[in-house]
Design brief:
- It is a single chain.
- The chain is α/β, with parallel strands linked by helices.
- It is 42% helix and 16% strand.
- Strands 1-2-4-3-5-6-7-8 form an eight-stranded mixed β-sheet, with helices on both faces.
- Helix 3 packs across helix 4, helix 4 packs across helix 9 and helix 5 runs antiparallel to helix 8.
- It is globular and about 50 Å long.
């Protein structure tokens, strides 16, 4: 596995590429959602690697990336060690992580495809670093209204879910189906369901818990409409028709905030349209990116 230090924290990343006969391809960066990892983007990236060099990485505290820096006494006075100690779980901090990652890999201008919480992080990044983005795809993203009681109930339930994550859950038959039931309308491969469950179980406790509070909050409910309204980068927002996590109407409202955002709802899918209906998803992406040849799922 390949790691790179970003603001003092070891991040996992990988490239998915195809031979290009010496021609330089543009780079597409994939960003996963809460308690997930880059693993669920692999199938999409393999198809898009026909036209892009695809960079996948696990965000700080999720998947194979560490939650915090390992600092010994010899490092203690180094700037990166000091920065790592100060890191928080605000979505803006994760946008900064991405900026540093691109700097470390010497990537000046990229395409982005981000999902769920990762799409919120990408939206912040698009407005802070619009000169570094060609086009963006936000999958299952949107804006929501603040409701104190429902948010508090969500945080309370989310806290229980994060605290009760025994590793033996992954060994119980059919648990992966039950775990993914709320996220899906169509079935996906059993290996993909199992990977989601495993990623959830290994997510860093502090990262998983605190991003529940920072991604679903009064501050984000007030901020995200402003961020969508400011978008200048050509953007495609894709919703799943039956998404219970981020309903399609939330995505439609977000897309309406800016004339730079195109909106597409994919029928008969929920929170993972790229896995539930990969053919339609890839055709939608292809059309937005104006790729000259048909990509196959």
């Amino acid at each position: 596995m390949t790691y790179i230090k970003v603001r003092g924290v070891e991040h996992y990343y990988e490239w998915i590429k195809q031979t290009s006969n010496g021609l330089e391809k543009p780079v597409m960066v994939f960003i996963h959602g809460w308690a997930g990892s880059a693993r669920y983007w692999e199938a999409t990236a393999k198809v898009l690697s026909e036209k892009f060099d695809c960079l996948l990485y696990d965000m700080r505290g999720f998947g194979r990336s560490r939650g915090k820096a390992i600092i010994d006494e010899s490092q203690f006075l180094k700037q990166e060690a000091a920065e790592a100690i100060k890191l928080t779980y605000e979505l803006e901090e994760y946008a900064q992580d991405l900026a540093v990652l691109l700097d470390e890999l010497q990537l000046q201008r990229v395409y982005i495809n981000a999902h769920s919480m990762g799409a919120s992080i990408a939206t912040l990044f698009l407005n802070q670093y619009q000169e570094r983005i060609e086009k963006a795809i936000l999958t299952c993203s949107g804006i929501f209204e603040y409701d104190k009681k429902s948010f508090e109930a969500f945080h309370k339930f989310g806290g229980y879910v994060v605290k009760f994550r025994p590793q033996w859950l992954a060994k119980i038959p059919l648990v992966d189906r039950m775990f993914m039931a709320r996220f899906l309308y169509r079935s996906i491969k059993s290996t993909e369901r199992q990977a989601f469950l495993e990623d959830f179980l290994i997510a860093d406790y502090e990262a998983a818990l605190n991003t529940i509070y920072t991604s679903v909050s009064k501050a984000q409910a007030e901020l995200m409409p402003q961020e969508f309204a400011k978008l200048k980068v050509p953007t495609l927002l894709v919703s799943g028709e039956y998404d219970k996590i981020i309903p399609a109407e939330m995505g439609r409202k977000a897309a309406a905030m800016s004339d730079r955002v195109e909106y597409k709802m994919i029928s008969n899918t929920a929170h993972f349209p790229m896995l539930e209906d990969p053919k339609t998803y890839l055709e939608t992406v292809k059309e937005f990116l104006q790729l000259p040849t048909l990509l196959s799922a």
